[in-house]
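Bug #77: duplicate submission created two jobs. Keeping one. Sequence:
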Amino acid sequence: MSHLQNSKRTENSRRTPNGGPSRRQFIAVAGAATVAGGTLGRGPAVIAAEPFARTGPPRFRIGLAAYSLRNYFSFMKGKAKKPADPAKAIDMSGFLDYCGLKGFEAAELTSYFFPPDADRDYFLDIKRQAFLKGMTISGTAIGNNFTQGAGEKMDRQIESALQWIDNAATLGAPHIRFFAGTGKELDEHPERMQEAVDVMKRCADHAAEKGIFLGVENHGNLRADQLLEIIHAIDHPWVGINLDTGNFFSDDPYADLEKCVPYAVNVQLKVNMKGPDRGAYPADFDRIAKILRDGGYQGFVILEYEDEDPYENIPKVADRLRDALQV
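Kept job's structure:
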């Protein structure tokens, strides 16, 4: 697909449901005076990216992230580790089985837990197993940092990110969770915002060739305004937000979710929220469900359980989630 075709597709995909002009088209006609000023990384972002245009009612597909059972895998980011309880040890094939037994529709296969020698044949075998088990692979997830500054470490992370896009294509995973970087690094080094955006655009172009969405997560204490600035600056039809309900460290994380849900391409749900004055506190699943419904979200809602006794508690939390989402 040419750059011109890709740009046209971006515009058409973000048209308003009634076929009228998008916000970007309206702004272009009204003139630059109507756009908030500011330079990238140093002020309010010029609004460029449009919310994803979805038609019909909200729709949710519930899945489980492999990260929920992180203490029971034998590998962590390419290094061997001892499972917390050998009797409960699990590998990715076993994780697919677990998701099926507990009634999840989808499995998110976090990259951290694959064996370091996983190759194309391995990923194809996992894809085959998932299909035969009737399990949808909702996506995978990597742990990069694109705000650390240019250099050898950044180059290695870019190389790894591009490789995992290829791995996702082999797995049949339609989405990859990306980290942009950290809020602190962006506050201390505003120029790194542009560096992160440029790298994400490079990754997005590669992902688009494979038909894979990149979801930029609100990770690393990114504020909602920082996350939206990144999304607006990237402005790519294959890039959205991987909206983690427990990752906004603010006075009103629910308001942050409301701002970001129109751009979400994947949702990860945690059992806790957090704030500067309250620390961690139980998430209101019903309130989160309402935010997703009101935002018109359609797609995967992936439980990412981080608390104690996952084998015992995941099924209970999943039932709460199904009740809240009414699925």
